[in-house]
């Protein structure tokens, strides 16, 4: 089972790509921090200072300005995430996030999908605000 989320960002693909892989930029829209530049084969530690939480992203594949594939989650419950970038003729970019690995047999399966979709929509909204308008205070504002 997968969860697919798409957004259009009015910036070229290289700017969208760099927002993810550059540790000095990711704190403006998603995690508080990233341990290092995202590159294939690396294990990146990302923190949410607001929640006193951190997680590891195992970088599987990176194609500059095109695709980022990583794995995250608890042992035995990992999910694969593919972030694809498609630059259009007007230098805007369609960003697609596809997360796979959900357990359809889990009692809270539907809740997991809804929470996951909510998280990706929120992160992409923060990314759009950051790249298009310079807003960097939206991240970590969602409350459950």
**Termini, distance in Å?**
24 Å
Q: What's the CATH H-level homologous superfamily?
A: START domain
Main pleated sheet: 7 strands, antiparallel
Strand order of the main beta sheet, please? Answer: 1-7-6-5-4-3-2
What is the top-level CATH class? Answer: Alpha Beta
Total strand count, please? 7
Do you know the CATH topology?
Answer: Alpha-D-Glucose-1,6-Bisphosphate, Chain A, domain 4
Number of helices: 3
What would the average pLDDT be, to the nearest integer? 95
How many distinct domains? 1
* Share in β-strands: 25-35%
* General form: globular
Radius of gyration, in angstroms, nearest whole number: 15 Å
Provide the succession of SSEs: EHHEEEEEEH
State the helicity in percent bands: 25-40%
Estimated structural class: alpha+beta
Mind telling me which CATH architecture this is? Answer: 2-Layer Sandwich
Query: Segments where pLDDT lies below 50 for 5+ residues?
Result: none
Report on this model:
- The chain has one domain: Alpha-D-Glucose-1,6-Bisphosphate, Chain A, domain 4.
- Helices cover 26% and strands 35% of the residues.
- It is built from three helices and seven strands; from the N terminus they run E-H-H-E-E-E-E-E-E-H.
- A seven-stranded antiparallel beta sheet has the order 1-7-6-5-4-3-2.
- It starts with a strand and ends in an 11-residue tail after the last helix.
Outline of the structure:
By secondary structure, the chain is α+β, with helices and mostly antiparallel strands. The chain is built from three helices and seven strands; from the N terminus they run βααββββββα. Strands 1-7-6-5-4-3-2 form a seven-stranded antiparallel beta sheet.
